[in-house]
Fold this protein.
Amino acid sequence: MDPVEIPPLPQAVQVVSSTWARDSHDLFDFEAHHLHTKTFTVLQPMVCVRNDTEVMMIRDNMSMPMGSDPLLRITQKDDRSFWVDKVSTSTNSKKLWRVVRASSTGHHLTEGDIIKLGRFKFKVRQLGTSQMAQPELRLDDANGACCPASLDHEALAATLCRICLLEGSTEEDPLITPCLCKGSIEFVHLGCLRYWIRGRLNITDSTSGGSYFYRPLACELCKAIYPTYVTNSSTERVPLVEVPRTTPPFIVLENLVRDSQQHASRGLHVISLADKVLKLGRGHESDVRIADVSISRCHAMIRFNQGSFVLEDNDSKFGTLVAMKKARLLEPEAVSIQMGRTVLSLNVQPDHGYGCASLLQAPRTEERAIRLNLLARGRPDCEP
């Protein structure tokens, strides 16, 4: 006699919402003691919304109550698995942020990840692990490369460099035109410009493992951004700024500024993790120091472990978050997602109501109809 295959129990999603009473810069205070907390059990596609501090679940095809802010959407695939995703697939839809402190193993970083510490954001531009790898010093809107002013150095024999005021161009130290200046201040020796830039960036060869902060500099006269690379006579692309060699493994983090007033802080943090753990925070001992009131003294750490760069939260007040790039499958292990001042903990568990499609914190407009249907069926524990 063939054994009888027992079908798996239907799954439910348990959602625990915690909302901070204050509405400040989309922050959530993980040290707050007075939070507005609610628990839901979801067995079908739902949308989570918030009205002030009141968090509600509404059916996927229902219109949102007036004044409500959408938080996230719980969807269900054909295999009955549950997924969490943004409410809208449009690019304007707000990101979902995964809470790192809720994971016992931290977050394994990949290139392109966006990290949020308090109200400050970084983008992971590069993860270097091979011994031959070196940082790529280029921002998205930075100029690409410039060529020497002319390969005919004899024609520039009487041309002055605007920095050293000496004439002439050579193969080793050509005259270049790195900005939009014209006339007698158009040309500058490559070596002179490199020397000036290194002084402005305060880059020295004695930095630990070749760690430094790079930011694009602009011409003080025409305000044009200097290019990142220079193409020499053999069409080889070399960095405009001579930087020390960085010891792998290393990480390159880009500051994501919030407004134009912070443009001066935009740049790339190049940090070697060869002999240390990278610390991010407000304290003086931090490798990446962020002078912001929403940042803890030692806010988060990045360590290189078994070939992976692992981001860990250091019990910070306003948390360490990573933007979700796509829909996430919900599993028995809970995942915490932050949307502004609300943190939602979601995990799947067996539906002991034997498949009844109920929602234990139903909207009040549906509560009476649900109760009447339950009484009519004689099922006190589930909805038809």
About this structure: The chain has two helices and 26 strands.
